[in-house]
Amino acid sequence: MAKAGKTTRLTKKQFKDLKEKLALKPISVWDKADAATRQEIFKMGERYKAFLSQAKTERLAVEAIRERARALGFKPLKAGAKGRRFYLEQQGKAIALCVLGKKGVGAGLRIIGSHIDAPRLDLKMHPLYENQELAFLKTHYYGGIKKYQWLARPLALHGVVCTREGKTVQVHVGDAPDDPVFTLLDLLPHLSRKSQESKKLSDAFEAERMNLLIGGLPLDVEEGAENDKVKLAVLKLLQDGYGVSEADLISAELEVVPAGLARDVGLDRALVGAYGQDDRASAFCALEAILALKDPAVTAVAMFVDKEEIGSEGPTSANTRWIELLVAGFMEAAGEKPSYLAVSRALAASQALSADVNAALDPDFPEVHEKRNAALLGYGVTLTKYTGHGGKYSANDANAEYVAWLRKVWDQAGVTWQAAGMGKIDEGGGGTIAKLMAVYGLDIVDVGPALLSMHSPFEVSHKADIHSSVGAFRAFYLAGPR
Ligand code: MN
Ligand code: MN
Question: Most CB within 10 Å of its CB: which of 51, 204, 414, 466?
Fold first, then answer.
């Protein structure tokens, strides 16, 4: 350490130079973007919106990812598969892409994990009923939502109904231009003083009142027939249109999501507004990055998993050993022997990014953020060294050595990036799939674009951050040894 006390008075110019040399200054993507980059940012924004508009559910996201991968020569991973580019699906709700590296899979992989499920409303097992000669579907919310945001807005229905005969029927209503939409009713302000306005927000809106309006036309029957004419009319429409009965709705996965396409936000079109950007933003960026790889040195993997929003549970989530199956399969395809030891060693020698969105500093609610450690919209991809809540509970706290390596990788590749946590320590918090991937003893840290209005039906991202995240992911895949 230098000795304190003896100093020379600096000139204003010297102070400015010293500050520039030693202090960290936030840099906006736009500070560095030349004309070509600006054009690229907006071009990528178009691809991004198209992806979000197509991938309204995890099943539709798998389809969108598979479609783009197959067009670029990715093949299904199975025994005896030949080639360098593969994909493997898990129950139609998770998918992984892989580009084999020149070094061999056993030398370690570069893995980016993101999730493709988003908060929404599912249907209950017995959803359909009639009330006041209107037909409704009972819903059950999935993930963290603010219930009031889902009322009195156009909603679409996407998913599958599986029949006893083994047929899987696709249902997609509400997003095509001529489709009808559905809605959850809300009370008029004239009459909601006691039932809503005088209550706490958490008490004012109840899950059991979130019933999807889907019909109002009774069957035309002679007088004296039993009631439920509207419900039966809906069942008849389901039978005629899809060949499904009420019992088939037990074996269905129908998801209620905001209707409509992803849109530009702002007169300058700098931002994207859409449902499901947590975490299809990161999924899109990982997809763009891996599809652009030609012949990487290190094997690159992009995993797109399900059920993160309910705590990563179940066979399509990150909380499975699917990753071992993937690595073993990739080794087999590369002609390497996928012994337990070889797979374990490959994983332990890997670097990974848990690609998920972070909360951008909200200009209207600065008090929930700690502004020195908050992500700024438009300032590039966000690195979050640790997540969790309170005293770092349930966090993956990334290794300093790994974070240093990533900084170097991004700085050398010219990526504009920022480091930020999520909100004030005692305000709340959240987790990602990082801790689940970390069980293999690999290097892992949370990285992704920041959002405003996160978990709402209309989340907002900045096109510059999407572009920066794609650049960060590409640089990660292409980086030299750690
Ligand atoms: Mn997320
Ligand atoms: Mn989330």
Answer: 466
The pLDDT value given to residue 101? 97
Q: How far is the CA of 439 from the centre of ligand 1 (A)?
A: 19
pLDDT in tens, 428-445: 888 899 999 999 999 999
pLDDT at 2: 65
Distance (Å) from CA 309 to ligand 2 centroid: 5
In this structure, the answer to whether residues 428 and 288 fall within a common structural domain is yes
Check: CB of residue 170 under 8 Å from CB of residue 242: no
Q: Output the pLDDT for position 6.
A: 73
- Ranges of the chain whose pLDDT falls below 70: 1-2
DSSP 59-117: HHHHHHHHHHHHHTT-EE--TT--SSEEEEEETTTEEEEEE--TT-GGG-EEEEEEE--
Number of domains in the chain: 2
88 plus 229 within the same structural domain:
no
What's the 29 CA to ligand 1 centre distance in angstroms?
23
Query: Measured in angstroms, how far is the CA atom of residue 457 from the centroid of ligand 2?
Result: 12
- The residue out of 201, 232, 258 marking a domain boundary is 258
- Cα of 452 vs centre of ligand 1, distance in Å, is 13
383 & 296 share domain:
yes
Q: Are residues 300 and 430 in the same domain?
A: yes
Tell how far the Cα of 447 is from the centroid of ligand 1, in angstroms.
Answer: 11
Distance from residue 194's CA to the centre of ligand 1 (Å): 36
Q: How high is the pLDDT of residue 315?
A: 97
**111 and 92 co-located in one domain:** yes
Q: What is the pLDDT of residue 395?
A: 87
Q: Which domain holds residue 215?
A: 120-258
Identify whether residues 241 and 370 lie together within a single domain: no
Domain assignment of residue 10, yes or no: no
448 Cα: distance to centroid of ligand 1 (angstroms): 9
Q: What is the CATH number of the domain that holds 340?
A: 3.40.630.10
Query: Helices (DSSP H) in 138-276: which residue ranges?
Result: 201-204, 229-242
Could you tell me the CATH number of the domain that includes residue 172? 2.30.250.10
Distance CA 152, CA 129 (A): 20
Strands across the sheet with 183-184, in order? 168-173, 155-162, 252-258, 120-131, 134-142, 211-215, 183-184
